[in-house]
Amino acid sequence: MATHRENGGFHIDTVARIIRKTLLNEYLALPVAAAATWLTHPSSSTHLGHLLDLASRFNINLTVLTLSQLARAALYLGSAGLLLSANSLLNKWAANNWTASRSGEWSHWEREIVVITGGSSGIGAHVAQGLLRRNPRTTIVIIDLAPLRWAPPPNSEVHCFQADLSKADAIRAVCARVRDEVGHPTVLVNNAGLVRGRTVMEGSYADVEVTFKTNLIAPFLLIKEFLPEMVRNDHGHIVSVCSTSAIMPPPDIVDYAASKAGIQALYEGLGMELLYRHNAPRVRLTNGVFNFIRTPLVVGMPTQPQFLAPLLHVETVSEAIVEALYSGYGGVIYLPGIMSYIAMLRAAPVWLFRAGVHRTTAQLGVRFPGLQTIDEAGGVQAVSK
């Protein structure tokens, strides 16, 4: 869920969190329902009399009818809360192949080797820093075209490799170096990405090619490089950074949205392969479906209602990724949380989804400056984040 940082803490996730912990809290509502039901029973007449006397002292008009209504309302609310908890639990176990982590499997992060693409700054840098705050002995490998723009803590195991992830031969070479010089990664955070900000008609061949190569093909190839060892050990975690544009593709970034829709398919299909083809149910997968984030890739303030779809802070996104890694379980991270329900609307009639939800992306009020310099061969010459 979004945090106190977004829109001053006033957004739908905050309201949902409060309601979930009060009205829809089954641990509160169901005992209230049971107590109110018991007090309306004839055998509890003495206790009911005491309760009515106590209520009258505070000028509260408490009747048997009111208690019955309270019991019914609390039962409905508690049942709804129970269903939400059951749904979350089933989602968790389904996303993790109904397989628990081994005892202490994710408790010793000094044994893990974490590769983060695009980690020189932005989300990737904050993920690396968050992991090091939790365990300074975690081995971090940054793969980025840009040089590292943050200072690793003293004595930390941070390795930096510069590579253009839009080029397959560069990916193959840098992955070989990582294995030879550091070891086999156990965690892969596919964070690197770019957006050109041009319509389908206006974008050049190179714009389209480098977008798909960096955002979609590179994650595929990196997984191909590092997954075999994870499968052999039935231990690993792959995080993919997706986007709400995969659900509602806006104008001007259709190539970006299509690449992120591919990431969604990669997450879902790879999970099936791990279970049914490779017998590696404990290799965890996490997919982050995020709304617009405060990075240099996006300029301006979205016209979307900030109460419903707040502009996310980098720290909020990185903390959610680190929390998912430390949990030892995979799944889908929706930020803000309402996006999980927007995703469900994809199953609504086309006219309803397009007219009621998708059309809101036509005038976003933000620009995508396309900070990278692209050569006509489809390579990234420089990256500015």
From TrEMBL:
Gene3D superfamilies: NAD(P)-binding Rossmann-like Domain. PROSITE patterns: ADH_SHORT. GO terms for molecular function: oxidoreductase activity, acting on the CH-OH group of donors, NAD or NADP as acceptor. Pfam families: adh_short (PF00106). SUPFAM superfamilies: NAD(P)-binding Rossmann-fold domains (SSF51735). InterPro entries: NAD(P)-bd_dom_sf, Sc_DH/Rdtase_CS, SDR_fam. The keyword Oxidoreductase applies. Belongs to the short-chain dehydrogenases/reductases (SDR) family. This is NAD(P)-binding protein. It comes from Parathielavia appendiculata.
